[in-house]
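User: For my dataset I need records formatted as: sequence, then structure tokens, nothing else. Please produce one.
Assistant:
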Amino acid sequence: MDKAARTRCSARLAALAWLAVLVLSAPPCRTQEKKPGLEYQVSVSAISIAVTVQGKDGRYINDLTQEDFTVYENESKQSISYFQHDFEAPLSLTILLDVSGSMGLQDKLKDSREALRDFVSGLLRPQDEVSLLVFADGEVEVAAPFSSDKTLCLAELAKAEAYGQTALNDAVAVSPEFANRGKNEKRAILLITDGIENDSQASVDQAVEIARRVDVPIFTVGYKIPLSEEFLRKYKKTSTLTSAGIVSALERFSRATGGRLQVATDPRELAAAFREIKRELGHQYIIGYTSYKSPKNEYRRIRVITTNKKHKVRTREGY
């Protein structure tokens, strides 16, 4: 890929990750309330969450109304102010593709390019917009900005080549802020990686802390995750780089943001994972509410339930 032709999302992810913390911690709207003898500030935020509901058999539940949902923030019940569930709603999808050196082995990048080509050209609809971010060697680059015209995205996919080390945590920390710029209400990140991490400034905890503050679920596909300790030894930066550690980190990225992890070991499973992710995105509910919080209360936990206790409800953990 011609790196000079790309628009840079980050020259150095550590600096942008820190910037993301500052930006995302700032309340979008702040009002000041006064009481006799007491003065304090309360930030008012419009919170939007993507919610997936499944039955015990894994079947998506699509006939729920606003009255079927209850939203809690820090275990305090919230009043739902917005509700949408539309199969035909357009999607703003950000593809976050690992192009580091390890993806060049075992045809991982080649298979990913081909599966993504079929996904973008065959499953995304004309009204859906897509962007392509690629990451390696401590940089995330915007190979193709958001557009409903898939031509540039497909062209850049075809040119993607593997090089350098993997700053996976840094990429996860930075990409949600970019993905949130999509014009459609329904947004998601599709992360494709083998999970090897050896070049990040941010830890898994720090990446999760930043990513979960933005309402963009991360759907992760771990492709040909290394199972051989001998193979991993070449890439180790810390002792946590094990097959189990890789799966745990990828699971955390998805679970914290309301997405999910799928693991694929061959091209057929990879294509099936993409199809299932696209299918799930069509079944999402978008729920909004207004949050009031004081500066002292930094992290807010989110919990969503339905009137049917057997339902499995998935959304982001908090912000």
